[in-house]
Amino acid sequence: MATDNRVSTVLARRLGGELLRLRDAAGLTQPQAAQVLSATAAKVAKMERGWVPFRDPDIVALCKLYGVTDEAVVHSLLSLAKLDRERRKAKGWWHHMPIVGGLGEYIAMEEIATRIRTWHPALVPGLLQTPEYVRALGVTSNWSHPDEIEALVTSRIKRQARLRGDAPLEFHAVLWEAALRHQVGTVEVMRAQLDHLVQMAKLPHVHVQVLPFRAGRHHGVDGSFNIVSFADPGALDVGYAETIGSTLWAEGAEANEAYGRAFARVSRLSLAPHDSVSLIDAISKGM
Hints:
single chain, alpha/beta, 434 Repressor (Amino-terminal Domain), Endonuclease, Chain A, elongated
C-alpha cells in the first residue's frame, strides 16, 4: 500500500517536469542521470513523474550534471522540493472530510500558499462566499442531502480561515460582472453576498477587481482558474482549473506561464479595485 511519501503530488510533478525539461535540454538519458545519483533509471523515472519526494543533494547533483549554472534556477527547484516535503507531511482537517473529494489536493496547496490569484466569470470565489451563498449553490447542484450541504459550508468556512490570522493569504480575485448579477439564492442572499465582497475588499491583503461587460470579448471568459504561489521567492507558480467531473493542474512551465498571461490580461482590462467596489456596491443597492 502506498504511503503519503509514495504518491504523486502536484508539486512533485511540477518539479519533476522541470528536471525532465533540463535533462532533455542537456541531451542526457535517464540512465545517465541515475549514474550520478548512484540510483536506477527507474528511480529517475519516478522522480520525473512526481512519485517520490526529492532530496536536496539529488537536485543539486542533477543540476550540475545538466549544466545548470543559474543559482536562481537551482534555488527555485530546491524551494519547490521543500514545499513538496511539507505538503506530504501535512495532516490537515480536509483529510477527515469526505465531502472535500477531489478538492483535497487543492486545499492542501492552499494551506501552504502565500498568494492566490483567481479569475471567476460566473460565481463568487469560494474564499469570499457567505454561508448562505454556499447553501444556495448546494441546493441547485448535486448536493441533495442537507448534511452534505452543511459539510460543504463547513469546509468552505475552514478554508476561509486562510484570509485571517497573523500571516493571511494574499488573495487577488478578478470577477466578470456576470458573477455579480447572476442571482444565487434569494435576492437577500445575493445582496448579503455582494455586501460581504465589499467588506472583504477592504482588507489590505484582499484585492477584488471586476471585469465589466463593456470590456467586450476577452481571454479568460471560457472558465475559471487559480494560480497558487508560495513563500519561497524562487518557488514556481502552479495553475489550477476545474472542469466537468475533473480538475486540471498546469504542471509544465509553458502552461503555467499561459495562466499568468491570461490573468494579467483580465486584470489589466478590469476596473481598479476602488472602482470595482463601487460597482459591486451599486449592483447590491440596485437589487
